[in-house]
Amino acid sequence: MAKNLVIVESPAKMKTIKKFLGTNYIVDASMGHVRDMPKSSLGIDIENNYEPKYITIRGKGDLLSSLRKDVKKADTIYLATDPDREGEAISWHLMASLKLNEQTDKKVYRITFNEITKNAVKNAIKNPRELDMNLVDAQQARRVMDRMVGYSISPLLWEKIRRGLSAGRVQSVALNLICQREDEIAQFIPKEYWTIDAGIKLGSSKEIKASYFGEGGKKIQDIDQTMAEAIVADVEDADITVSEVKKSERQKNSPLPFTTSTLQQEASKYLNMSTQKTMRIAQKLYEGVDIKGYGSIGLITYLRTDSVRISDEAFNAAKDYIGNVYGSDYVSYARPTGKNKGNVQDAHEAIRPTYIELTPAIVKDQLQRDEFRLYQLIWNRFTASRMTPAVYSVTQVKLTQGSHVFTASGSKLKFDGFMSVYSNTDEEVEKQDLSKLSEGQKLKFSSVKGVRHQTEPPAHYTEASLVRKLEDDGIGRPSTYAPTITTLLARHYITKEKKNLFVTELGQAVNDMMVKSFPTIVDSKFTANMEYMLDSVADGSLDWKTVISNFYPDLKEAVDIARENIEKVKIADQVTDVICDKCGRNMVVKYGPHGKFLACPGFPECKNTKPYIEKAGMKCPRCGSDIILRRSKKGRLFYPCENPECDFVSFNKPKVDKNGFAVDKDLANKEKE
After folding, report:
1. Which of 25, 109, 302, 591 is labelled catalytic?
2. What are phi and psi of 517, to 5 degrees?
């Protein structure tokens, strides 16, 4: 019997797909890319029309040998790598490495599926296609361009600033955005302004909140302290009259289903997940999880997308589910439509659950904590996106005292709609209830006072707001947001405190050099235009070598000029109070491949190094020593006591009591017993 070979990217996906196909199918995994440009050189033949030089990735030889054996057994080969440009390129590299074009006795097809379900996989096999070389060329153009930027500018950073640094096409723009925001914050001069806030009695115990509007029907924009004090003195002992009551309804529309960007933003905001962690967990949910009664299945659709489109099948399944569980009043029949951005790639659906009937409650016990939290967020968001808007009864009131006008507004939830499922919102669900006020009603102030305010500087970027900015400016693609931020943190160009991103001295030095010598590389509009050209390559309207040939000469010229003209930048090492036990100098903080370490500044005469011990800012509840941060071999943070004789350790960040001591849960549990 004829054999069919399906090649996917990951073992997890392989395991899930094997379950859907019969014994007549062999399913293998390529483990990602099998070919790439060499690390030791640029890997691009500049003289030969910028042709990339590809080699087999080290360690992939045995895997390719195994794949070749399975190719020999098969009559039909299906290349089923991820449904994006990167996946298309991996399939193309597999074609070359396995010499599939030379296998005249075999049929070779490309198949893609947006979700790993039995129907999706079977339909893909029924509807195979040829390899899309436009998508392959778009990926090649991006890869070659990024390689040119990295391999041209990074050695210059090593030479002029510090070894181990790197530059990247999207990375440099993101760093520049963070530096610009830091400059805006540093240069910000706060301005004082005043408001007048009133409490107005409503019955014996209730009061409503109102704000000063203006005088004689005209709004007063700028109130200073003197004016505020005069208005307060004028009205505080007088009655106030309800002069106007307006009642209306307001709809709060259901949210759109998730794209990569909005998923990363919401996971950062509400789950406190980094973009990198969000993508790692989403990848697992997409590739397959063991669910009782279902086996290994993909729980969500493909995670790299900037479209809010959903399939007819998903549309109808959601309609039926919501109608049955919540009632017909909750079913929305409108298709989700987002902002029409020119750079939206509509090849994939929005991120959604593959089976809406698999509620978070059903799968909770079979998922790890963070997998459950992310799945719940995705399920709730998609289900809410298919539901009707929430409806509020809104009351707007004008209150007058002489010529002075105050205003108050209130709202009451009339119909919860989508908010019965998804209420992640910064807006209050309900404001004060003013529905019982009537025109002509006389009331009294319970309080009225002038309140001093200052204008606030722009907020520091968080991972969520930086992703939103990159997307709004058309910089990068869904697959690039997480690795871009991860690289900036790993290179120590930026640091994260709580959720805020701050530029380091090193990051500022790198950005200054990039702005001075490579202004086009850090220019948002230039980078966005390059993305547009890469999209043009993907749709077949532009040759990828044309993009590269227009880009490289200017880059090379800028690098040559910078090498001649830029002076070396000296960045002082962070000095610590740890004394080198070999020569007596104060040791300094250095950065290595695995993070911070302490080194003697007397290098190369003194080569002493020590582990860098970072304090967690709390005391041990058992012995009073400092709690420190350590990282396991797998990279997980944990919190042990600095005292080697103390056995306190926490694998989650401990809470801190009012005296600055970590809360010892084990001790507390023992005391309860």
Report:
1. 302
2. -100, -25
